[in-house]
Write a structure and sequence with these properties.
Chain lengths: 247, 134
């Protein structure tokens, strides 16, 4: 920025100014003062004009270059939808799996009951106490058991395959989450860029990630317990902590 | 809660509180596996409290982090209500800060399980709770 010119007032001008004021010619005096100042004013206005133009251009460039608008209007809402998708897919997978598991338990119960029903007669056979009619009964029951085992184990096989297939969510949700991570990185870089542009320091040497904490110290699942000393890692730690305090 | 012989009555009314339906389902299944047959669900501390006040529940399993009323606040409300304060409360939660565990213990929680947990852990803690009360 160029320095403002010094005020050049001549002795003649000064004498004239005094003359005007002494003779009560205020208008003329004001005019003379304005004339003296005008080079300064022109210079000042020119500087202000230049700065205003620079600011205007910077703001324009900022809007045009940055992806702020896109991020706000399209990418962030998209990211929210993606994360909702992840919740939906994982809930669906969990329910599918539990459906299969809940269907398997009765099948296992049936098999177990049938085996238990046969046991008494079988025991008798093994200890040579079985009568012939009982033996015939045993044969019939074993025959039934063999047939139902075949059916039920096929059932179990099908249900277990359902469980296996329900895990496909991991691939889909993994891909979606990766996209959201990319977006977060872009927003992060954009924010850092903004901070730098405005001359604010951005401390990129964070030693520890400090997550946000809610009411009652709520943080949700801890993802990096090895790096922290204020959390427990597993149930053993919980039990140790509680018993050390007398609970 | 306890039958005349002093054994644990697994027909007792249990309330499972968690804002994720999948977790409620898991806990319900595990409890059924352990012989508990009378289980109801609530999706938040704020919906659980009225249920407790009007039902005759004898055991509560609750998460901590819920949007309306958190589990820790539900626990405090239970302990503050003369008609409910006797009910044993087991917390099953992902909240793992030491301060929080102590907070829960001081608020009168009977057991604290961190997620992810195993069926065996749930059984152990349940046994311990009812042993202590018996």
């Amino acid at each position: 920025m160029s320095s403002l010119p010094k005020i050049h007032i001549s002795l003649e001008q000064a004498k004239l100014l005094v003359e005007y004021l002494e003779s009560d010619q205020q208008d003329k005096a004001n005019e003379l003062v304005a004339d003296i100042q005008s080079p300064i004013n022109t210079e000042l206005f020119a500087e202000i004009g230049k700065l205003t133009r620079q600011l205007h251009d910077s703001l324009n460039n900022f809007q045009v270059d940055s992806r702020l608008t896109d991020l706000a209007q399209a990418d962030i809402p998209d990211a929210k939808e993606r994360l909702n998708y992840v919740i939906e897919r994982t809930e669906e997978a969990a329910n599918k799996t539990m459906d299969a598991v809940e269907a398997i338990f009765p099948v296992l119960d049936t098999l177990q009951n049938q085996v238990e029903a046969i046991n008494p007669l079988w025991e008798k056979l093994m200890t040579n106490q079985l009568s012939l009619p009982e033996f015939k009964q045993l044969c019939i029951e074993i025959d039934l058991l063999l047939k139902s085992s075949e059916t039920e184990t096929n059932n179990i096989r099908t249900l277990m395959t359902d469980v296996l297939m329900a895990q496909d969510f991991q691939d889909l949700t993994g891909q979606v989450i990766r996209k959201v991570i990319d977006l977060v990185i872009e927003v992060e870089n954009g924010l850092i860029g903004m901070l730098t542009a405005f001359g604010l320091s951005s401390d990129s040497n964070q030693k520890q990630i400090k997550p946000s904490v809610g009411d009652n110290l709520v943080e949700g699942p801890i993802i990096n317990s090895q790096k922290r000393d204020d959390v427990v890692s597993d149930q053993h730690d919980v039990d140790d902590l509680l018993s050390s305090l007398g609970f | 809660m306890f039958s005349p012989e002093g054994a644990l009555d697994k027909n007792m009314k249990v309330l499972v509180v968690d804002d994720f339906s999948t977790m409620r389902r898991i806990v319900k299944n595990l409890l059924r596996d352990l012989g508990f047959t009378n289980i109801q669900e609530a999706d938040d501390g704020s919906t659980a409290l009225p249920m407790l006040q009007s039902g005759e529940f004898e055991f509560v399993v609750t998460d901590w982090n819920m949007p309306g009323m958190q589990g820790i606040d539900l626990l405090k409300a239970i302990r503050a209500d003369a008609s409910l304060s006797h009910i044993p409360v087991l917390m099953v939660t992902a909240e793992a800060k030491k301060e929080q565990i102590v907070m829960a213990a001081q608020a009168g929680v009977n057991g604290y399980i961190v997620k992810p947990f195993t069926a065996a852990t749930l059984k152990t803690k349940l046994d311990k709770i009812f042993e202590r009360l018996g």
